[in-house]
Amino acid sequence: MDLKYLQKLIKMLDSSDLAEIELEEEGTKIRLSKPRPKIYAHTASLPAPVQEAQQPVQTPAPKQEKPEKKEESNENLYEVRSPMVGTFYKSPSPDAEAYVKIGDSVKAGSTICIIEAMKLMNEIESEVSGKVVKMLVDNGTAVEYDQPLMLIAKE
Predict the structure, then answer these.
(1) Are 86 and 124 in contact (CB under 8 A)?
(2) Is the CB of residue 130 less than 8 Å from the CB of residue 107?
(3) In the chain, where does the domain assigned CATH 2.40.50.100 lie?
(4) How far is CA 114 from the centre of its chain?
(5) How far, in Å, CA of 132 to CA of 46, rounded?
(6) Given this model, what pLDDT does residue 32 score?
(7) More confident residue, 101 or 35
(8) Helix, strand, coil: what percent of the chain each, to 5?
(9) pLDDT 10s digits, 112-148
(10) Secondary structure of residue 111 in the 3-state scheme
(11) Rounded to whole angstroms, how far apart are CA atoms 155 and 143?
(12) Of the candidates 80, 85, 92, which has an alpha carbon nearest to the alpha carbon of residue 121?
């Protein structure tokens, strides 16, 4: 099966109300499913019993937290996301050089990693030109559909 065909199937599933698609083509079976929404239980807390105080109680002023500094503006960062469920690989083989490392410049259309799915090695290409600033997953890690893989500072 073609990577572009798989991406179309994923987009169709994502935009539909379906939870799962399963198909078989030329002896290859594919099953795509959306993650199930997480259900959170909300427990109400009971108010503490009111007691009469004989002397006024002073409460300290709340501390104001300083906002965290951002290393880079998020506007210029492109998040490379996994187009499928599989295993992330930085290089074409264990002894080969990684496609990209932090600090490398990439061009749109260049191969930046591989996702192995169903024993098929799918080359993932960059959709933007820029510089790799952060790797978000380790080599050999299982990844989910739409999981961020790396950040590229766009040119």
Answers:
(1) no
(2) no
(3) 74-154
(4) 15
(5) 50
(6) 77
(7) 101
(8) 10, 35, 55
(9) 999 999 889 999 999 999 999 999 999 999 999 999 9
(10) strand
(11) 27
(12) 92
Neighbours of 132 (CB within 10 A): 20
Q: What tokens were used for 104?
A: 């490398």
- The tokens for 106 are 């990439």
Tokens matching residue 43: 């427990």
Structure pTM? Answer: 0.53
Where b means 16+ CB within 10 Å and e means fewer, 94-125 reads eeeeebbeeeeebeeeeebbbbbbeeeebebe
Burial label, 151 (beta-carbon count in 10 A; 0-12, 13-18, 19+): buried
Quick: pLDDT tens for 41-66: 544 555 555 555 565 555 555 555 44
Q: For domain 74-154, which architecture applies? A: Beta Barrel (2.40)
Place of tokens 């083989």: 93
Q: For residue 55, how many C-alpha atoms fall within 13 Å in the half-sphere facing its CB? A: 3
